[in-house]
UniProtKB/TrEMBL annotation:
SMART domains linked: Glyco_18 (SM00636)
GO MF annotation list: hydrolase activity
One Pfam assignment: DUF4971
Protein name as catalogued: Glycosyl hydrolase family 18 protein
GH18 domain: residues covered: 130-450
Family recorded in the similarity comment: Belongs to the glycosyl hydrolase 18 family.
PANTHER family associated with the record: CHITINASE (PTHR46073), GH18 DOMAIN-CONTAINING PROTEIN-RELATED (PTHR46073:SF1)
Phylogenetic lineage: Bacteria, Pseudomonadati, Bacteroidota, Bacteroidia, Bacteroidales
Length: 450
């Protein structure tokens, strides 16, 4: 609660007034003062004032009847001429039962006063409520069979993807148009908020759209209109342009206009729908120089702590890296720590990335051309391997199994980060499998409603 603080300087009045409840003292009453370095001290709770003549021998001020720190809306006091007080009473955000203040007089001597609030109670601790945001690609081949099998009780948000940004500032809704209403209604029925995630239509189109003020403004207006049209809860920006002109790193050229875009989009959102969420997917900080000002426009930053070590083959069997894990615990904790300590992002804004897929250096039929393989396909490919559901790798295939997912979620929980993101929900174990990774997340965060 924002405190209204003022320092009252007035005449000494030898009247003792004691406030014993929040309704017994009028706002018109004058402060009680007496001789001493600290001559009066009054705590305000709304329209009521708590005061007592200060005992200058014990230098203790006891004010009963104040029950919660959040009820305190103001502090006023009077000092002897030339005296100062530290800490400044107006700077106290959370009061304790006993609060000490040092008054330094004009001649440099120091006197300690103690304010006692004997009735002050500790507020109930807020329950930790992590965000679990799952990306939901509506053009995925699993959509029709698996949407109803998502365990929605373990999600707080979904980001429908992708609404694509074109060079002229218009939007290509082809991937989401067919199912967005159904997906939104299903999520909402389960108490899950729905965002729309935006990415480039083809390489450089997102960048081209934000480079010119006219197309940038058109894009901002289009995003606001789309979210309004489909009655969503906000939007997610997945800007993944890895190089600028002539192959130079994008941040050398495009970061200034990207920040202009964020600012314009944020201001438009705040003007039209301040309750909407604005989030951003962000990648490996070792090659994206985001800077400390990135987070000011976003409610959540979704850290893509995966794809760090991949086969990079143009076709199956054409591998350029030796086998190894691509989304380690060190990647996960390192990203969260980097953003929190180096880029000064508040913990509550940071969502750690969890992959529901892995990479294989085997020629598995269900892997794609880059070697990526979905979690449910991993379970299928190695169904004859005893204990596969508890593993993180087998042979030359690496992924995040239940134990790794649990460990990462526990780290988020123990360190009170904002939560996690999932790429993506249709890669989880199928149907009502007992090995769903989403279940592990929900149960680690104690989100089970059963």
């Amino acid at each position: 609660m924002k405190k209204s603080i003022y320092q009252m300087m007035g005449m000494v009045i030898g009247i003792i007034l004691i406030a014993t409840s929040c309704s017994s003292s009028s706002s018109e009453e004058t402060p009680v003062t007496n001789a001493g370095p600290l001559q009066s001290f009054i705590i305000q709770c709304g329209g009521s004032y708590y005061r007592r003549t200060i005992d200058q021998s014990s230098r203790v001020i006891s004010l009963s009847g104040i029950h919660f720190s959040a009820d305190i809306t103001g502090v006023s006091y009077q000092l002897a001429e030339g005296a100062t007080i530290a800490p400044a009473p107006q700077s106290i955000a959370l009061w304790n039962n006993t609060q000490e203040f040092t008054v330094t007089t004009a001649d440099g001597s120091q006197v300690v006063y103690t304010v006692n609030l004997p009735d002050l109670q500790e507020p109930e601790p807020e329950l930790y409520k992590p965000v679990v945001l799952g990306y939901l690609p509506l053009n995925d081949f699993q959509y029709d069979t698996q949407l109803s099998h998502i365990h929605w009780e373990y999600l707080t948000h979904v980001a429908i993807c992708f609404l694509k940004v074109k060079s002229d500032g218009t939007l290509n809704p082809e991937q989401v148009a067919g199912h967005i209403v159904e997906a939104r209604n299903t999520a909402r029925k389960n108490g899950v908020k729905v965002l729309i995630s935006l990415c480039k239509n083809t390489p450089k189109e997102f960048t081209n759209a934000i480079k010119e003020p006219s197309t940038r403004t058109k894009l901002v207006e289009g995003i606001i209109n789309f979210v309004e049209q489909y009655e969503l809860d906000g939007f997610d920006i997945d800007y993944e342009e890895y190089s600028g002109d002539q192959g130079a790193p994008w941040w050398n050229q495009y970061r200034p206009v990207l920040m202009e875009f964020f600012k314009e989009l944020y201001e438009a959102k705040e003007a039209a729908h301040p309750e909407w969420l604005m989030t951003s997917a962000t990648a490996d900080p070792t090659w994206l120089n985001y800077g400390v000002d990135w987070q000011q426009y976003f409610d959540f930053l979704n850290l893509m702590s995966y794809d760090r070590y991949v086969p990079k083959g143009g076709s199956k069997g054409s591998f350029t890296n030796a086998p190894g894990p691509d989304a380690t615990m060190a990647n996960f904790t390192g990203d969260l720590t980097y953003w929190n300590t180096t880029l000064k992002t508040p913990k509550e804004k940071l969502l750690g990335g969890l992959p529901f897929y892995g990479f294989t250096w085997e020629n598995l039929a269900t892997a794609d051309d880059t070697g990526a393989i979905r979690y449910f396909n991993i379970l299928s490919e190695y169904s004859t391997v005893s204990g596969i559901e508890s593993m993180n790798h087998y042979g030359k295939t690496y992924w995040n199994g239940p134990e790794m997912i649990r460990e990462k979620c526990q780290y988020v929980k123990d360190n009170q980060f904002g939560g996690v993101i999932i790429w993506q929900l249709f890669m989880d174990a199928k149907d009502d499998s007992p090995h769903k990774l989403l279940d592990v997340i929900g149960k680690t965060f104690q989100m089970d409603k059963n």
